Amino acid sequence: MTARPFAALARPHRDDVRIAVCGLLGGLLLYGLGLRTGPPLLDLPGWLALVALAAMSGAELLRRVAPRTSLAVATAALAVDVSSSGLVATVVMFTDIMYAAVLYGPPATARRVPVISILLTVVATIVPAAILRDPQALLIGVGVGVITVGPAWTGVIIREHRNAALAARLEAEQVALLAEMDRTQAIVAERARMARELHDMVANHLSAIAIHSTAAQAIDDPAASREALGVIRENSVQGLAEMRRLIGLLRDEKAPGGAAEAQATPTLEGVEALLAQARVNGASSGLTFTLEDARDAGGGTRLPAPVELAAYRIVQESLTNALKHAAPGEVVVRLAHDTGGPLTVHVTSPFGDRPGPRAPGSGAGLIGMRERIELLGGRFEAGPEDGGGHGGSKIWRVRATLPVREEEEER
Fold first, then answer.
1. What CATH number did the domain enclosing 321 receive?
2. Rounded CA separation 403/393 (Å)
3. Per mean pLDDT, which range of 54-63, 90-99, 175-184 is the poorest?
4. Average pLDDT over residues 131-150
């Protein structure tokens, strides 16, 4: 802990300088006019009132930067002033210093000064009345209370209002900061969700377009070129429809009747259509696609929409990756779910050494799938494994386990 430089500590506020100068000039004017507060309590020379005035003016300079020192000097100056021929300006400046000590002083000073001022007032009321046996002696206590209790408790009230205002401002700043953090997190989460949706919806169609456009350029066969162009057109139309659906979700367009435009959410009922499209897109690459649906068909239950959407996107992205990277062979999609258990999605595809993918990719597909599963509290695995029943060759396996809550499933 480093000590503050004396120059910085003693540098008075400009308002305090004005108060000190005005008080000093006012006191000199009163002294010159011979206006005193009353006879001195002690037989001291009258010129000591000027010394007390100067000391009180100096204490005014320290009312903010050193409140306790200022109060100590002011108390001594007031004692000298009262003991000599007092000046009203000195008393008025003392009340200001008492107020400033409570307002600008440390918490301990702010607590003790008001209590001490009350005790002094009580003593100044009881002792003179008991000694002098004169009711007018009570006026001494009244005077002490006016110059001590009044300023001190005024400082307490102002300080409490100032602290309350500061606490309210800090609370408002914290609330604003938390709101900004929540807004930022919401934006980041929404951008991540939009990125996943855009990637999963469009990547499949664009990959098929890239693969078949490359084949159409490489094969000098009009029939094959027409077939490739047909696949390209179909995927272009479907990709455009998906993009329009996403844009509609972002705009949240309203129908003329005021209701939001209905947007179909993909479900596992659409997996067959995905495989049918994949068979068309992968025919030229030597890929076949098979669906094994081992879900409990007798349960008569419907899975929660987030679970079905995540499973649908996992299958869609896995088929897209197979079209890009898989070696010729069979791609198997297996769905399994028993009542009360999780939904599992397995996608296996031949894994072989290829010079490069059939279509370029961003590498965000596996990341997006993992994020979808983690958001639902599931497990996700992806990577090469021994083929086993595939003739000992390696396969690429995607395995996703999605928990299904019973209360959500019953809905």
1. 3.30.565.10
2. 32
3. 175-184
4. 82
Q: b/e map of 342-378 (b: 16 or more CB within 10 Å)? A: bbbbbbbbbbeeeeeebbebeeebeebbbbbbeebeb
Does residue 9 register a pLDDT over 60? no
Same domain, 125 and 225: no
Among the candidates 150, 172, 194, a domain finishes at: 172
Q: Is residue 261 part of a domain?
A: no
Please indicate, yes or no, whether residues 168 and 310 belong to a single structural domain of this protein. Answer: no
> What's the domain count of the chain?
2
Alpha carbon 15 to chain centroid, angstroms: 40
Residue range of the domain that includes 282: 180-250+267-410
Judgement on whether residues 78 and 207 belong to the same structural domain of the protein? no
196 and 331 assigned to the same domain: yes
pLDDT by residue (tens digit) across 148-186? 999 999 999 999 999 999 999 999 999 888 888 888 887
pTM of the model: 0.50
CA distance linking residue 133 with residue 127, whole number of Å: 10
Banded model confidence at residue 388, pLDDT cuts 50, 70, 90: low
